[in-house]
Specification:
Blueprint: E1 5-10, H1 17-24, E2 38-44, E3 47-52, H2 56-66, E4 70-71, E5 74-79, H3 83-96, E6 100-105, H4 116-126, E7 129-132, H5 141-148, E8 171-177, H6 189-197, H7 204-211, H8 215-227, E9 231-238
Parallel strand pairs: 1-3, 1-4, 1-5, 5-6, 6-7
Antiparallel strand pairs: 2-3, 8-9
Helix pairs in contact: 2-3, 7-8
């Protein structure tokens, strides 16, 4: 048995595990690439977040080892806009036998494919507590963090409200470059690629398409570049 307390984060690739970890723990330098097996982040003395690969074959390979992990509770993340993400959660949770926090992510998207009743039924069947959040906007993230860190009993967590259909508008960001070429010292590979592509005309969505990377990941890196003073501005646009 590991001495460290492990909180596994699971979910199909693209469900937003990395983005959610970053939203929960903003001081962490989160790697947004899908781990080959798993990746650990220290969030407290002897307490680690373990981001587990969302590949089915990887889960089955790890199964024998998971019995030695010291797990108080685990987090299963699914994308509210993708049926396959929810199906992956349905098939994976019974394999592990952990106490789960079931997290429906991307609540800000208007394309809701998983109903609250479907998510609630899965949570009830698996004895899990359901959270509906948006790693992008931060909705529901603080309550999830408090429950995750044991600051509030799970019994006190409120039932997620029935979602109100969102208007068919999508928020995007337009990065504005500096008047000079900034230094790339200390930047990650994806941050350097973004700086090369930013021209004041391409939005985060267009950059994500060009790089073949999820738009939420691009938005997070753009915000980091802005915080580091590597771009002039990050304008909110609605399309």
């Amino acid at each position: 048995m590991e001495r460290r307390e492990i909180t596994p984060f699971l979910g199909l690739k693209g469900s937003g595990k990395s983005s959610l970890i970053s939203a929960l723990f903003p001081d962490l330098e989160v790697n947004f690439e899908e781990p080959e097996y798993y990746r650990d982040y220290m969030v407290g003395e002897w307490h680690y977040i373990r981001e587990v690969s969302g590949k089915e074959e990887t889960i089955r390979l790890l199964l024998p080892a998971t019995s030695k992990w010291r797990v108080e509770r685990a987090v299963m993340v699914f994308d509210l806009s993708r049926k396959e993400s929810f199906s992956w959660a349905i098939g994976t949770m019974p394999l592990l036998g952990w106490r789960f926090l079931l997290v429906g992510n991307k609540s800000d998207l208007p394309e809701r494919m998983i109903s609250l009743s479907e998510a609630s039924s899965l949570a009830e069947r698996e004895g899990a507590k359901l959270f509906i959040v948006s790693a992008l906007t931060g909705d529901g993230v603080e309550e999830l963090k408090r429950a995750l860190m044991g600051e509030i009993p799970l019994e006190e967590v409120s039932v997620p409200p029935t979602p109100v259909p969102a208007p068919a508008l999508r928020r995007d960001y337009l990065p504005i470059p500096l008047d000079h070429s900034p230094s790339t010292d200390g930047l990650s590979e994806i941050e350097i690629k973004l700086l090369e592509l930013i021209d004041g005309k391409k939005t985060a969505f267009e950059l994500s398409q060009e790089l073949g990377t999820e738009i939420r990941t691009i938005q997070i890196y753009l915000k980091r570049l802005q915080a580091k003073g590597k771009i002039k501005d990050l304008k909110l646009v609605v399309r």
